[in-house]
Amino acid sequence: MTQDSSLTSTSKAAGNRHLFVSIAAFCDPFLRFTIESLFAQASEPEKLFLGIVDQSHESQQAWISTLTHANQIRYLHIDPLHSKGVSWARHLAQTLYDDEKYFYRLIRIHGSRPTGMACCVNIWRTCRQYIHALS
Predict the structure, then answer these.
(1) Dihedral angle, C-alpha 10, 16, 18, 20, nearest 10 °
(2) pTM of this structure
(3) Cα angle vertex 66, ends 64, 70, to 5°?
(4) Residue 78: C-alpha distances to residues 25, 30, 83, 85, 124 (Å)
(5) Residue 15, burial from CB neighbour count under 10 angstroms (0-12, 13-18, 19+)
(6) Distance CA 81, CA 69 (A)
(7) Residue 60: predicted pLDDT
(8) Per-residue pLDDT reduced to its tens digit, 94-125
(9) Region at 15 (left for phi over 0; alpha for psi -120 to 50; beta for the rest)
(10) DSSP-assigned letters across all residues of 12-68
(11) What is the per-residue pLDDT for 112?
């Protein structure tokens, strides 16, 4: 199990309007696409933070460090041989949460198309509209 501390973002003050997306991936060939799509589809990508537990044979740390939003990605790599199941991986991903106002757990059945990103973005937009209506 490895975590790159250079990819850990700074803590945010309470009351922020950031969205944290928790991702537990097991040998997921769409993980890179998922990461890129989340930031590409976000209307305010600077407010998006990802917590990723990647259970795969090869770490994506080097690739993540090249991304524009690398400082908004908290990444943990685990060899799949050491995985203890989906609930354990989701728990680890949740520990990467850092006081963002909104929390979303991205769920995708292995082998299905990564359509959860659009849902996540729509939830974020709905939250923003609701907040603006209340303020």
Answers:
(1) 70
(2) 0.73
(3) 55
(4) 10, 17, 7, 11, 29
(5) exposed
(6) 29
(7) 96
(8) 999 999 988 888 876 444 454 555 556 566 66
(9) left
(10) --TT---EEEEEEEES-TTHHHHHHHHHHH-SSGGGEEEEEEEESSS--HHHHTTST
(11) 46
Question: Could you tell me which residues are beta bridge partners of residue 120?
Answer: none
DSSP state of 105: E
Q: Token digits for 4?
A: 């790159």
pLDDT of residue 119: 59
User: pLDDT tens digits for 28-84?
Assistant: 999 999 999 899 888 889 999 999 999 999 999 999 999 999 999 999 999 999 999
Name the CATH code of domain 2-8+15-134 (choices 3.90.600, 1.10.3470, 3.30.200, 3.40.50).
Answer: 3.40.50
Domain boundaries, given as residue ranges, for the chain: 2-8+15-134
Among 46, 33, 108, which residue's Cα sits nearest to residue 73?
Answer: 46
